[in-house]
Amino acid sequence: MCQAPKSPTEKPQPVSTKEPAIHTPGTTTAPPLTGTPTFRPPGFDTASFIGGIVLVLSVQAVIFFVIKFLKSKDSTYQTLI
């Protein structure tokens, strides 16, 4: 069976006697770095190049079909019944 949660009055929380840290404006404390970043010389990134081409072609295809769809709505041509 499930046990009932313990009462919060059963064990009091210890009171902290530490004073809160006071930070002055304009200063920040950064955590220490855990590792050194690996150096990569600047150069051509093939994956980004191919991804850019795919992105541009996709956007052009979407624009083409949207324009084609909108032009078909403006058509005054009516089919024979």
Give a written overview of the molecule.
The longest helix has 28 residues, at 46-73. The radius of gyration is 33 Å and the shape is elongated. It has one helix spanning 46-73. The protein starts with 45 loop residues before the first helix and ends in an 8-residue tail after the last helix. It is built from one helix and no strands. It is an all-alpha fold and 81 residues long.
Which structural traits does this protein have?
single chain, 81 residues, mainly alpha, 1 helix, 35% helix
Please outline the helices and strands.
Layout (H helix, E strand, L loop, with lengths): L45 H28 L8
N-to-C terminal Cα separation, in Å? 75 Å
By DSSP, the count of extended strands is 0
Order of helix and strand elements from N to C terminus: H
Low-confidence stretches: none
Dominant shape:
elongated
Count helical runs: 1
Main sheet specs: none
- Could you estimate the helical fraction of the residues in percent? 25-40%
Helical/strand content category: mainly alpha
Beta-strand residue fraction: under 5%
Output the radius of gyration.
33 Å
Average residue pLDDT: 77
Keywords: Glycoprotein, Membrane, Signal, Transmembrane, Transmembrane helix
Biased composition (Low complexity): 24-38
Protein name: CD164 sialomucin-like 2 protein
Membrane topology: Single-pass type I membrane protein
